[in-house]
Specification:
single chain; about 160 residues; alpha+beta; 7-stranded mixed beta sheet; 7 strands
């Protein structure tokens, strides 16, 4: 399956709502997803188009089927924060890896950033393993950072990108 990134569109709200209401996915979020609705997903998509400090993309296949969202947030002239979430039906298929490779290429080659970083709950073993697999390097653990839970911080530097 060939993965593409494109601007989020209102039609993506249904698929976005799917992963945002999946308890096996949202248990690792740092926000309360219990009030998420298709309308709130549509509002996020509309707001994302106006956000000059972040770039949010739909992850789609060649038929334009929405599989998840990937983002560069808090972009400045040196770095940005990476985020990704996909629908459960594409977990383990390589979709997240392909999308991550594309957004990291954009970060380093098009935007000229020096670093992309992320943080993730330390107990999210699947995500921690994925981030290491795609080239992010663990930098530190922040204990009791969120509701008594630890956060792991990762980064990938431009000089190490693609190695």
């Amino acid at each position: 399956m060939k993965v593409q990134l494109r601007e989020l569109e209102e039609k993506d709200a249904v698929g976005m709502y799917e992963w945002m209401s999946d308890p096996t996915i949202v248990c690792f979020f740092r926000f309360d997803a219990s009030h998420v609705s298709i309308d709130s997903c549509k509002a996020f998509i509309k707001k994302a188009k106006q956000d000059v400090h972040s770039k949010h993309f739909a992850i789609v296949d060649e038929t334009d089927w929405y599989m998840g969202t990937i983002s560069l947030k808090n972009i400045n002239d040196k770095d940005a924060e990476y985020a990704i979430s996909t629908r459960k039906c594409v977990h383990g298929t390589g979709v997240a890896k392909q999308a991550s490779e594309q957004i990291l290429k954009m970060a380093f080659e098009e935007l000229g950033l020096e670093k992309v970083y992320l943080n993730v709950l330390a107990n999210n073993t699947r995500a921690n393993a994925f981030y290491k697999k795609i080239g992010f390097v663990f930098t530190r653990k922040e204990e009791n950072a969120f509701d008594g839970k630890d956060l792991n911080w990762y980064e990938i530097l431009k000089e190490n990108y693609g190695k």
